[in-house]
Amino acid sequence: MENFIVHNPTVLHFGRDVVNELGNTVAKYGKRVLLVYGKGSVKQTGLYQQILQQLTKVKAEVYEYSGIKPNPVVEDVDAAAALGRAKAIDVIVAVGGGSVIDSAKVISITIPAYQSAWDFFAQKAKPTSAIPVMAVLTLAATGTEMNPFAVLQNVRSKNKQGFGNPLMYPRHSFLDPSNTFSVPKNYTAYGVVDLIAHALESYFGKGDASLSDKIVFSVIKEAMEYGPDLLKNLRDYDLRARIMYAATLALNGITINGRVSGEWGVHSIGHVISVLYDTPHGATLSIAYPAWLKLVKDQIPERIQLLGKNLFNTDSIDKTIEKLEALFKKLESPVRLKEIKLTTNHHQQIIDQMIKSKVNGANIRLTEEDYPRLVSFMA
After folding, report:
1. pLDDT tens digits, 106-148
2. How far apart are the first and last CA of the chain?
3. H helices of 137-264, where?
4. Which terminus in the chain has less CB density within 10 A, N or C?
């Protein structure tokens, strides 16, 4: 078991009507607020009006940046940072799912940097300060509400990647499961897939941490037990709450304690598909994970066996992979490229982008010769 330090500075507000605590919380950090959100669904649900009431109550000056895309782009982050800089913003309020909150976290370090956000992702610069971020979550999936990571894509270079820094933790996150009622069935399913993938990325990381393993199994079992039921009852508060909490735990650090690192190769594969075809993130993961396991099963047989024993009551490596794939099917998320209308005509483009992006993991290494086999498993 490796040495580790636990420090998660995000204050999590979880439960019914916790957004009513937003105004007074924001007021502790300043009056000039940059409100960041997506394409307008928060207005249709009434959450936008509720947020404005909270900010008006504490006499905040509110400036808005809307239109964040489901696969967020650096151009929006740079534009929002320029607005925040011009208005001397004290605090950022992000209302949305992972795309919006990821964007807000990068905006927070870009405002004081006076340069493009992509410089951080390209390792040309390191953040030195950040504007405080308040996150109001509307989609249970990425765990971004309680971690220091974000993913962006650069449309011009066709590159999608992650970046993390301790300055990027949200100061406060507000999680009311009711605010996820309007998430449609397909995106609810993609969120469940995403939380499972995050737990697995920790599990397959380098290092021996048996208690962290058990936490991973518990998080995935929660998704297995309640995810399918949630797809049949999208407005069930208790089911929404269970999945929302599981998604937070899957990537707030607790599943990786005692390991050297996570194993993020599958996310890299998913990013290739997303950046090429604008595919929802969770859908790329349900396609990529079983294929990746088939490719690397001879490198990590014991880990796959232990996973199968604890999740599916099987010692068979192949049966474990089959059952994981069956779980994704039960969640009505795609498990083959053809299900998202990608044919053999697209395969070489995917392989070429994998080569360009140098798709790989931290511990379980792939070669360029592996990419065609990987794509064949995804087909």
Report:
1. 999 999 999 999 999 999 999 999 999 999 999 999 999 999 9
2. 38
3. 185-203, 210-232, 237-250
4. N
DSSP β-ladder status, 159-164 and 91-96: unpaired
pLDDT tens-digit series, residues 327-369: 999 999 999 999 999 999 999 999 999 999 999 988 899 999 9
Q: Record the tokens describing residue 148, joined without a space.
A: 């220091």
Q: Amino acid identity of 174?
A: F
Q: Let me know: does 272 contact 350? Beta carbons within 8 Å.
A: yes
- Determine the length of the chain: 379
Q: Which amino acid is at 362?
A: A
Query: Cβ of 364: how many Cβ atoms within 10 Å?
Result: 18
Output the pTM of the full model: 0.95
Using DSSP's 3-state secondary structure scheme, residue 171 falls into coil
Give the strand pairing for 149-154 and 159-164.
antiparallel
* Contact between residue 314 and residue 327 where contact means Cβ atoms under 8 Å apart: no
Distance CA 207, CA 263 (A): 11
Matching residue, tokens 């797809």: 231
**Joined tokens for residue 239:** 């089911």
**Tokens 């109001």, residue located:** 136
**Secondary element (H or E) of residue 182:** none
Q: Is 278 exposed, middle or buried (0-12, 13-18, 19+ CB in 10 A)?
A: exposed
Tokens coding 33:
């607020």
Angle between helices 98-110 and 74-86 (to 10 degrees): 50
